[in-house]
Design a protein that fits this description.
With 126 residues, the protein is an alpha/beta fold. Helices cover 44% and strands 20% of the residues. The chain has a single domain, classed as Rossmann fold (3-Layer(aba) Sandwich). The chain is built from 5 helices and 5 strands, in the order βαβαβαβαβα. The chain starts with a strand and ends with a helix.
């Protein structure tokens, strides 16, 4: 079982993503934005599924560094992207991404991509 943090400002979508991941056997927590995610000092995720928003991009490096420093290992990020144009305009954030999905996405695709990133991350640590 992996610990996964879901960051999405759409409460319903965040819960839906968490349910998909819980059905796959993962423990999840939900935060509505990166500032709230930073306050989860007692929760060190194995992976972060985060909605990519232009306003959030400046906070992402610090969020990733915080989790990696606390855990002593890399923390992979999977971005969910709402608009095809958005990911083109904020390419700098993609230096931080391990995978991404365009919304709307199929729940099975989300689960498969999360499993793939977790597997790659575990292999890299070994």
């Amino acid at each position: 079982m992996s610990r996964i943090l879901v960051v999405d400002d759409d409460e319903q979508l965040g819960r839906s993503i968490a349910r998909v991941l819980q059905r796959e056997g993962h423990e999840t927590r939900i935060a509505e934005d990166p500032r709230l995610a930073e306050t989860l000092t007692d929760y060190l995720p194995d992976l972060v599924v985060i909605e990519l928003q232009a306003a959030w991009v400046p906070r992402l490096p610090a969020l990733r560094e915080r989790f990696e420093a606390a855990a002593g290992r890399p923390t992979p990020f999977v971005f969910t992207v709402g608009k095809r144009e958005l990911y083109r305009s904020i390419a700098a954030a993609f230096a931080l991404v391990d995978d991404w999905l365009a919304k709307p996405f199929d729940p099975e695709e989300l689960a498969t991509r999360v499993e793939t990133v977790l597997r790659r991350s575990a292999t890299a640590r070994d």
